[in-house]
Amino acid sequence: MATLRKQYAVARPVYSEDSFAEDHEKIYRLHKTILDHVKEYLTCDSKRAKNAVLSLLPIIGWMRIYRVREWLLGDVVSGISTGLVAIMQGLAFSLLASLPPSYGLYTAFFPMLTYFFLGSSRHISVGSFPVLSLMVGAVVTRLVPENGPPANITSFEGLTPDQQRVLVASSVTFLMGIFQLAMGVLQVGFMVVYLSDTLVSGFTTAAAVHILVSQLKFVLGLTVPGISGPLSLIYTLEKIFVQITSTNICDLVMSIVIMVVVFIVKELNDRYKAKLPVPIPIEVITTIIACGVSYGFNFEKTYDVDVVGKMVSGYESPIAPDMEVFQESAVEAFPIAIVGFAVAFSVAKVYSIKHDYTIDGNQELIAFGVSNIFGASFRSFAASTALSRTAVQESSGGKTQIAGLISAMMAMIVTVALGFLLEPLPRSVLGALVIVNLKGMLMQFREILYLWRRDKPDCVVWVGTCLGAILLGLDLGLALGLGVELLTVIFRTQFPRCSVLANIPGTELYKDRKDYLHILEPKGVKIFRMPSPIFFANIEFFRDKLVEAVGFNPLRVLRKRNKALRKIKKLLQKKDDAITERGVRDLVHRMTDEFCMNVEELDLPSDTKDLPFRLDWSAELPANVNVPRVDLHSLVLDFSAVSFLDISALKGLKMTLKSFLRVDVDVYVVSCDAYVMEKLRNCTFFDDEIVTSMFYPTLHDAMLHVLEKHKDKSRGLVLADTAL
Q: Quick one: which of 267, 278, 366, 474 has the most CB atoms within 10 Å?
């Protein structure tokens, strides 16, 4: 049974752009100059000053609406739950940064203190993130290798290897914070849009593989030196497999048990999260049990298990970053800053949409920049957010960053008073906790099949980024991923899917003629659609596809016609016979190609004014006059998807339109964007041949005009009887 659909009918004149402008007056807006924008930016008043303060200190905004009775209890419970997770992740992720575990607690405390005041997100948990920890660890390993002398840096003199690593990590973090703060001040938070979800997914999956391999030495109880640079993952695996027979069975068994238990409980947390008031803190429980068992059975001496060891009690005095480390690590610090912000902003955006408030990308850059600079001064390493930790903070009732502040206080309590209790904790336990938390990132491998079926260029970006980051390292892999991503964008715009449109009978709709069975395509008319901007890189592609669609090259036809016309005029000058339209064939037959014409002359319009008869190129011509027959009288270009044209494209388009006009094909451009029309006028696109009357506001307007102009040829077509 056919569905009854609403009908609509519109009665209006057929408009061209010129006639539409005559009937409807347009407002011409005065565009601001760069100087006007600068003056407006530098102008200050009380309202603007107030908005600037509120923007710089988002805490003022949400503190004014804070509901103590409704939100405080949830924030306290959430802060405690998140704090326990942050402590465990801080200890574990410090191993990725090649630092003593106690410094992971610093990262869970100091950055949060400044983000509390400056951050615009109310839900993200600021602290260590495994990918950033690994990227910092690569710099630390390069400058302070486990086997071999450290880099030639003056500040390293008199420091132990651990102190050297802490100095490198804090200096890299300080520089990362400077980059983020500078980007925030310069208002370039929009840069994160160039990191697509596909690229970030491939990059984080590669990072998860790196993290997994880096933790194998702790899980297996092996001594493997840190390796950085291209193919570091391959070399690390080689060293692990060489020593595989030296695996510490106690470490391996303990790690497997912990991974299985934590995995099962986490699955139960996900399955019953609606019924559980807070997720079961399984990482904390297993850590406490592992500490107790390790202390009771003296794993360190009995089974030669590598433990956390001496924890730093309290906080050390601030340190200044090292300029030489800045010089050595500037190339790595910038991608660390970009990745840290991109991950944090994407997570923050998810929760801001869920809870209906806005976040500011530039303010987030400032907040993380200041947080990393402040934290680095107190020996913490790169801070961002972790999705798992943020999920705990939000799902356990956290409403504001008071929960984040409480979680930081939890880390402070452990650092100041309870750190010694973690000294017997086996490092293999921390490695196991890191690995089991990689499940979400490693499961992203499933996206390959999905992307291959849905969007192959995106799949290429994912695979290219992932493989590049795995083989070349995270910094070079990110650069490679960006390159591949930009290439896919260029590919999509340089080689778009052009189409020839046809009318759906009885409607004003025009669709790709290859997609529908019942279509109407008037004889002598071609409708060509270009679904992308036209610029220097794809103007030749546009011309080639247009020639392919119409079935002839107008420039070649024009040159053939001008050659034939030149022959006819030569004969007229000789006055051999009485020249008539019918007698041209015999005259041309007697002519030879003894003359040649300049190529530029051949491209000029055919001049038939001096002929004593009307020359019809569509009529039958002599056998030796090879002029291609043109059955097309109208060409309609649908520019509805053309968002811009550059100067090179304008020149190429102008030449193309003129070549069709000179072979007696009427050209119409429809649905042209107002910005594009303005650009055409400003660039003197219009002249005696190309006029504004060729432009129409809609495709149907142009088609009705064409059918009216050639109504003898289009008699009986349903198109002319549509309601519009």
A: 474
